[in-house]
Amino acid sequence: MDANGVLSFSDDLVFKKKKDEVLNNNNDNGCSHLQVLEAEHQKDEEDEEEEEEEEEDNSIIINGDDPLDHPTIPGWFCEHCPQWPGQAHFLKVDKVLFQGKSAYQAMLVFQSSAYGKVFVLDGALQLTEKDECAYQEMITHLPLCSIPNPKKVLVIGGGDGGILREISRHSSIEQIDICEIDTMLIDVYKKYFPEIAVGYKDYRVNLHIIDGSAFLSSVPPGSYDAIIVDAFDPIKPDDEVVRSKLFENVAKALKEGGVLCIQAESLWFPSLDIQILISKCKQVFKGSVQYAWTIVPAYPSGVIGFLLCSTQGPKDVDFKNPINPIDSNKNFGVATQPLKFYNSEVHSAAFCLPSFAKKAKGLRSNN
């Protein structure tokens, strides 16, 4: 890296094409995971000479016709997805803490230089210690602070336990159900991210090892005040979540005036058609449907979006103005610290859209 912070081709930081150093995990969301290489690994002189030859032969071609599709940098994690073409996301790795595969997905935990511990699922970065608070607090408190006195909440996905941690801050809550199919994922989070997985320690939490859609089909109508879905990454218009009856089942499981919050990706990625998702939700939820967004630096584009929907009740839920604030709440639940990101001002600001987004057909209802 030169004096201006621009990546340069140096002896110890060079793009290389080595098949034994690349691990491509093709998965449902189209991401490719390039194997993390430990920078501190020592090589003998003979290996160094061989590597120098390989680097000379396989360096990325700047002006040629055959540039490398998936370059790696020793000691760095790289995330690359078709949903954000022409770019890749790199994080410097200090140490690999865990790498394994369950019956459902591949997992990686490493200590990064800039973001603390990082969790990667099927090649896609899920959370980091540094900024997980922004995502967990917003996806939880945007819906729960928009309705009075919530008592029963269902979480679909969210196996890290962070949403549970945030729900525990609400003293009105009497029951928290969570559906997660991967027990290994839960165990990994409990071991390497105890400050996040602490949510499982709340006595109100009931863990169901079952697919969320299957669980919803068995739930009596009008069971929950709020449902938070954190299981789809990313959501695309042709995904099963849109084609299936998930939204219909969620609406049925909610009480009158109940709310849903679901991750809805970034405004900056036109390939992820948020408008279609909003249109689908408006067909099902007859109360309010609003798009919110927040800053999460470690995520692609640095932001993430949420869809908030409500069933029809005595009056529409006003998502923009929290009626159940917790800013001054001294009860942290099972959390060990006060809120780091969320407050009532941030809540209202989350629904303010940039000018280009206001012009989108599906987002005009935010105005």
UniProtKB/TrEMBL annotation:
Keyword terms of this UniProt record: Polyamine biosynthesis, Transferase
MF-aspect GO terms: spermidine synthase activity
Claim: Transferase is one of the keywords in the record: yes
Domain named PABS: residues: 74-311
Signal sequence extent: none
NCBIfam families, A to Z: speE
Name the UniProt record assigns to this protein: Spermidine synthase 2-like isoform X1
Gene name for this UniProt entry: LOC103493919
